[in-house]
Specification:
The chain has two domains: about 140 residues, Diaminopimelate Epimerase, Chain A, domain 1, CATH 3.10.310.50; about 50 residues, no CATH class. Helices cover about 60% and strands about 10% of the residues. Strand 2 and strand 3 form a beta hairpin. Helix 2 packs antiparallel against helix 4 and helix 8 runs antiparallel to helix 9. It is elongated and about 85 Å long.
Length: about 200
Amino acid sequence: MISEQDRHRVSQAIHEAEKGSSGEIVVVLARQADSYRAIPIALGLFLALLVPWPLIWLTELGPSRIFLIQLAVAVALNAVLAWPPLHLALIPGSIKRARAHEAALREFSSHGLSRTQGRTGVLIFVAAAEHYAEIIADIGIADRAGPAVWEEIIAELIAAIRQDRLSDGLMRAVQHAGLILAEHAPPQAHDANELPDKVVILDD
């Protein structure tokens, strides 16, 4: 998804962005938000259930032969539908967005962004396979900035992902988020860097 050099560049951008505010930024990249295993399997089994009817109506095959054909079709369909590009293409967009959003919420919680001093944590989450990006800002900063500014960052980031410029999009998103944090959550006395300034890669 992103080279080691670009990961370092984004980490440096996070460090620079946080220096001008009391906020914390975490970037998480997932190759795919979910495995979606159940949906292709369910589709394959449903299609296999339709196989016996034309065989019953149009042939004189016995029940055991029809069952074997149905079983073979089910196995073949599941093998074909397991092919990753086809697998993902069969998933409705609404389901992909919902699963990616759920993954973003999990990452926000697991990286401690809801436990920062001042509640000014910001997650930039990308699910590459879904071409999905989301920013989750904690209550200490989300309402101060308003939804429009976060939506603008997301729109730019998604456009960069579609143009195969993920690292550039992340750099811009981090810098833009840093400006928002600097404006609405300026540095405070005794500020500390509470979370690592690194890009988290989720391979599964």
